[in-house]
Structure formats: structure tokens, C-alpha cells
Specification:
Length: 485
């Protein structure tokens, strides 16, 4: 890390004289700023530091949005309260019924942001949500607990150090996801500049930004990091046939399931990640030949998700509990088009950059037919299954949040799409389109943050009424305030 920071410092020093001369010349201020931005973005060393730069921007945004005044009190919010609650329940309150919840709500949360993640199961009160996210948050919770004790903050699991630690945790897993994603894309020999551009698009042109920076207590940023690691390790396993890589891969799969069981569908991407049919069959044969490795794999797949069964037993005395009530997966009732295109929560309406990435199939079709078929098949099955959840809009949220875990596949397609662009004029046109979509994404996140885009009840009329209208927010106006009643 020190070497990277020193190298970045040298880059800025090397360009300092040119920047100083630019500032002295008689150009309009706006022109100077544009030239400075282009100067920075065109640096040949940028590809080495894009993740560091993204992380710095995320931290600046998070601190500005969430950490000031009393805004930090709503970092651990909505469903995130349930994911996180296992940590204070086990390590601070030793309370299987989560009875501390009411006191915490009164102490930290205003009435409009209170949310009860508990449900009744017989005579017991239990946590509705899965424990996998809490495991990802555990190191950050531990650091926050020490800080709370050292700096005389309330060591109750919800004071300032804990809330900020969860925000940092979400950003950490997001950056880890970018690191693994970058390593995976490098295996396909994409140009470093294309990989850097893809990472920037994923960071600022998709809803991942919102769930890493704003709604950091939900599971998606954590799942993105772990899923990206799974994808990279799967690629490495099929290339190397390494026992340790396989066991780590299985452990990651088990953790992915413990966070959100439906994300276990990632196993259907293994044929694509293998690269070709021969590599897939060789990988399967390798595991089946190694009886010890096969047995250990089964144990990992049982023991890690089994943590949730132990959590249920701790709370109720029963190992198998269904906590989602009337919400369920109905594979005979898909909402495929609504999931993708509805104004209520359509993925391609609120994250349109992902739609453009699909044009990467045009280039991909020329390179690897096996991967073309297996990836397209996987994405169709993925969207179909996710759209079969009875609450297909996934409650109060921005865009289609369950897709975040699978953004690496869209990033792969985006790299292929960029490779289609050979000439200058199409490159300028496509670059302008992507810049617009990144700006649109940030504007819509900004509108969502201030309830201009409603968390659940948007329609065509209300969408176009506020399209790109941030001026209303600056005037403290909300053209969609009728949805808040």
C-alpha cells in the first residue's frame, strides 16, 4: 500500500509543472478544469490505482452523506438491522430473543426509520434474517467495540463507532470485490484501460454505489465481494485443478448461501467459468477422484450454512424454521418483464448501463461459443428465478438489489462491448452515452435518497415527472410528495 501511495504521489509531482502552466494560461476556468480532468484520466498509471481511487471517493461520499450530525444513526437500517443484530445479541446482550431492540430503537432511531426485524414463532420472538452478513461484519464490529470502550462511547452495538464501522465494512467488501473482479478480467487479457473503465462503470454507473455508500447494512455489498472472490477462484480452479482452491471455493459457496440462500444459484455459472466443456468435465472428474476432498466439500456445504440452523435452535429450540411468512419463491409465477422494465423497480430503468452491457454478447459470440451459451443461459435462469419471488420488487429499495451480487458477469460483458469499439467517432458516441448513464445513475440515487424516487410505489407518470430534476431537491421541493402520504 505504501509503494502504491508513493507511486501515485510521483505521478502527481511529474504532472505538477504542466498543471501549474495550465493554471497560468488565459483559458476559461471551465476549460482548465476539463483539461485537468482529462490529464488525470489519461495518465498511463491510472490502471494501477483505480480501486484505491474508487475507495477514496466512496469514503468521502459516505462520510459526507452518513457520518455528520445525527445522520450516522440511520446507517444500520431496515433489513440491515436484522442482518447485523446477531452480533450485539451474541457478544453484548447474550439475548436470543433480541429484546434489546425496543430500547435501541427508542434511543437512536426517529419514528420514521424504526423497523422491527423480529417475528413471532410460536411463543418465541426470533430474527427474521440470515446470519451470513453478520459473519462478514464481525471483524468491523469487533474493532468498533474496542473503539467504543477506549473512547468512552456507549458500548451498546449501535453508537457512532459501530454504525460507521458497518459503513466502512460495506465499502471494504465492495473494494475487495473490485480487486477479485479485476484479477478475473485480467485472465481474459482485456486491455488494462478497458478493465479500469469497466470498474469505474460498475462503481458509479450501477446501484452498487448506493448499497456500498448509502444503504451499507444490507447484504448486497458483502455478497458482491464474496461472489467476486468465488468467480475468480472458480476460474483459477478450472485452470489449475488445485485442491486448496477447490476447498476455498466450496467454503465461499457455503458462505454465499448463508448470506442469501437464493444466491446459491451461482453454481449454475460454473460451466461458464470453466471456459469450455473439457475443462468442466476435467474439474468434476478431479473432485470425484479425490475422495477426501469430496467428503470435506460436503462437510463445508453442510457446516457453514448449518450456522443458521444453530441460530434458529438458539432462538427457538428448533433447527428448521421458515421466517419469511407469506413471502415465498413461486417458480410458476415469474415477473420477468416487470423485474427488468417496470417503472416500479425495473432493473434496466433504474440501472440502464447494465442493458448496454448486454451488447457485449455481439463481440463475445465471436470468441467462445461455449461461454456464450452458458453465460446467456445462466443470466436468463438467474433473472427468471429472482423475478419469481412473490415480492418481486424486493420491498423498499433502489433498483433491483438482488442483481448486485452478480454484477461481475455484466462487467465481463461490458469489457467485451468496449472491445467492439474500434474507431474514434463511435468511441466518442459510446463514451458520451456511458457518461450520461453514469450521471443518470447518480442523479437517480440522489433523488432516491431524498424520497423523490419513491422506495416502492413508482410508476411511469411519477418517473418522468422528476426525470433528471435535481433542481427541485435544491429548492426543497418534491414533485412526487403525493407518494409519501
Amino acid at each position: 500500500m505504501k509503494n502504491k501511495i508513493l507511486a501515485l504521489k510521483e505521478i502527481f509531482l511529474d504532472n505538477f509543472l504542466r498543471i501549474e502552466k495550465l493554471c497560468e494560461c488565459r483559458l476559461p476556468v471551465s476549460s482548465k478544469i476539463n483539461i485537468l480532468v482529462l490529464q488525470f484520466l489519461s495518465l498511463k498509471y491510472f490502471a494501477k490505482f483505480e480501486i484505491l481511487i474508487i475507495g477514496l471517493i466512496f469514503i468521502i461520499c459516505a462520510s459526507n452523506i452518513n457520518w455528520g450530525k445525527d445522520r450516522w444513526k440511520d446507517i444500520i437500517a431496515t433489513d440491515g438491522k436484522g442482518y447485523y443484530a446477531y452480533l450485539p445479541a451474541i457478544f453484548i446482550y447474550h439475548d436470543a430473543s433480541f429484546s434489546f431492540h425496543n430500547e435501541i430503537e427508542q434511543k437512536y432511531y426517529p419514528p420514521y426509520s424504526r423497523y422491527d426485524y423480529r417475528i413471532k414463532y410460536g411463543e418465541q420472538t426470533i430474527n427474521k434474517y440470515f446470519a451470513g452478513t453478520a459473519i462478514a461484519e464481525l471483524p468491523f464490529f469487533a474493532i468498533a467495540h474496542v473503539c467504543a470502550l477506549v473512547f468512552h462511547q456507549p458500548a451498546d452495538g449501535y453508537s457512532f463507532p459501530y454504525q460507521v464501522a458497518i459503513n466502512i465494512a460495506a465499502i471494504f467488501y465492495t473494494l475487495a470485490g473490485f480487486w477479485f473482479l479485476k484479477k478475473w478480467l485480467q485472465q481474459y487479457n482485456f486491455k488494462p484501460s478497458l478493465i479500469s473503465l469497466t470498474l469505474l462503470c460498475m462503481a458509479f454507473g450501477t446501484h452498487l454505489f448506493y448499497y456500498a455508500v448509502d444503504d451499507a447494512s444490507l447484504s448486497h455489498a458483502y455478497s458482491f465481494g464474496i461472489t467476486s472472490a468465488f468467480i475468480f477462484l472458480a476460474d483459477q480452479f478450472f485452470r489449475n485443478k488445485n485442491e486448496k482452491q477447490w476447498l476455498l471455493l466450496v467454503a465461499l459457496l457455503a458462505w454465499i448461501i448463508l448470506i442469501r440462500p437464493v444466491n446459491g444459484i451461482i453454481v449454475l455459472a460454473l460451466p461458464f467459468l470453466a471456459g469450455n466443456k473439457r475443462a468442466l468435465l476435467e474439474g468434476i472428474a478431479f473432485v470425484l477422484r479425490k475422495k477426501t476432498i469430496f467428503v470435506l466439500s460436503l462437510l463445508l456445504l453442510f457446516c457453514i450454512p448449518g450456522i443458521q440452523l444453530l441460530a434458529y435452535y438458539w432462538q427457538t429450540g428448533h433447527y428448521f424454521v421458515y421466517t419469511y411468512g407469506s413471502e415465498h419463491l413461486d417458480l410458476l409465477q415469474p415477473h420477468f418483464m416487470d423485474f427488468l422494465f417496470s417503472y416500479k423497480k425495473g432493473l434496466f430503468i433504474y440501472t440502464p448501463l447494465l442493458f448496454l452491457s448486454l451488447f457485449g454478447f455481439l463481440h463475445f459470440a465471436k470468441t467462445n461459443k461455449w461461454q456464450l451459451i452458458t453465460l446467456s443461459g445462466f443470466l436468463v435462469i438467474l433473472i427468471y428465478v429472482l423475478s419469481c419471488w412473490s415480492v418481486w420488487w424486493y420491498g423498499g429499495s433502489f433498483s433491483q438489489r438482488p442483481v448486485i451480487e452478480f454484477l461481475p458477469f455484466f462487467a465481463f460483458l461490458l469489457c467485451h462491448f468496449f472491445q467492439l469499439i474500434k474507431k474514434r467517432i463511435p468511441a466518442i458516441m459510446i463514451g458520451t452515452a456511458f457518461l450520461f448513464l453514469m450521471v443518470l445513475n447518480q442523479v437517480q440515487i440522489y433523488q432516491y435518497r431524498y424520497n423523490v424516487i419513491h422506495w416502492e410505489n413508482m410508476d411511469k407518470e411519477h418517473y418522468w415527472r422528476v426525470f433528471l430534476r435535481i433542481d427541485q431537491i435544491m429548492k426543497n421541493e418534491n414533485a412526487n410528495k403525493d407518494l409519501l402520504r
